[in-house]
Amino acid sequence: MLAVGARKRQRYTFKDESQRLKDYYRAALPTSSTSAVVAFAVDPGQRLNNSLTTLTGAFIGTVSPTIDVSYQLAGNFGGFLNEVPKRLGRNEALDAAAEALVAGYKRYRSGFREPNADLLIKHSRALTALHRCIDVPAKAKTPETLCAVMMLPICELFMGANKAPAMHYRGAIQFLNDRRSQNPSDDLERVVLSALRGPALVEALVGSDMRHNRREWKSLVITGVSNGPTDTALMNQLARLTHVVSSCREVLRPESQKPSPNPHEVLLELYCVQSTFIPILNDLRNRWQQRNKSRTSADGAQLTLEARRSHCYALRTLASALSLNLILNNQQTLLQGPSAAVKQHSAQLASEILELAEQADIYRPLGSLAMCLFLNAASVGAGDQETRERILRKETELCKDVWGEDVMFEVLTGNMSYGTKTGQRGDPSGHWSR
Q: Which of 322, 323, 330, 175 is nearest to 244 (CA)?
């Protein structure tokens, strides 16, 4: 190639560097199986245009694994968000929900807790697009539409909405009821179902909309579990726990249409679940102590993103297991009356949850949000008024990170909250009922 300049003729030779660059960037990628790197591929079937390219790029940046767990979306709300970029351009509800989520997250990261006109418009478009898809049978139950349903509650959290997310979760739960034990149709549906475990579990424990039997529950809760035998054992216990709580509800509030379970048999099954939980709790405590020790022995050195994610995961998993044990203790009290031993055990569990919530401060605001749910359960098991007040103060403090002043956790799920207490909030005699 000839180039002319300053009265000279010079010849430039261009060398093919493509293979060297490929080798360089391939070598720069982490090789660990636990790496946070996520490959975002574009499906050949997508309709590529400028607006879709812009949205895809913005969404990839929003759910980037390089964001710390304090603000990371996929790590706190579900890995299904990593699958969204590959599906954009194929479902109008998913596209509109993605656009609203990007806008909501950007505004939240900027320090705003209320929506502006742009976010309200995009949220309205997302709702309209979702309604149109639901009205079309061929689109209503696709993985992309279900994914859009799951994304809207996240967007609405960033808008400061306190009860609207419950509506979307109930819609997703209706999808679960319709599909029952069908296997996931693809990777997107598998990870969406995995993320839906939490809302479905809350509804099963405090509501009556879930219509799954024990086998169907087990199929749901073990979907996407790949973190080792302890986590798998915990998920299997969730399937048993939901059945036990449902049986307790039938004993305490029998329906005339069907015979009530034998109270003695229900109590025996509850004892069995409680005993099975003991080694699982011990394993979770040991894992938490090991990871917490690694963090505290870092001598002030900043932990890697992966180490913080692992530490936060161990903390929240232990807190969830402690909360489930509190629920079992409560069911036992409802069936056989107050017991000093059960009350003492519940007080210990509640104190553990409070301690974990205080350590979760380093992951605020989003990494510690799940602790609001566990603190809500701990407030019932607290052994004294002082501990209960500390729990409620910490719960309010964490909830303010998303909803602002004077908000308790009940707003997360609206009518799907943990239930109604027989006593007032803060009353030592209060317990969960429905």
A: 330
pLDDT of residue 410: 46
Q: What is the dihedral of CA 379, 369, 82, 196, to 10 degrees?
A: 30
Closest CA to 126 of 142, 108, 149: 149
**CB burial readout 146-166, b (16+ within 10 A) else e:** bbbbbbbbbbbbbbbbbebbb
pLDDT in tens, 173-216: 677 666 655 677 788 888 888 887 777 777 777 665 555 666 66
For 399-411, the pLDDT digits (tens) are 888 876 545 444 3
Strands 432-433 and 8-11, how do they pair?
Answer: unpaired
Q: How many residues are there in the chain?
A: 434
From the list 386, 379, 383, 363, the residue with the least C-alpha distance to 419 is 379
Q: Which residues does 172 contact at the CB level (< 8 Å), separation at least 6?
A: 146, 149, 150, 196, 199
Give the separation between CA 348 and CA 342, rounded to whole angstroms. 10
List, in order, residues 6 or more apart from 351 with CB less than 8 Å away: 382, 383, 387
Q: Match 């900043």 to its residue by tokens.
A: 302
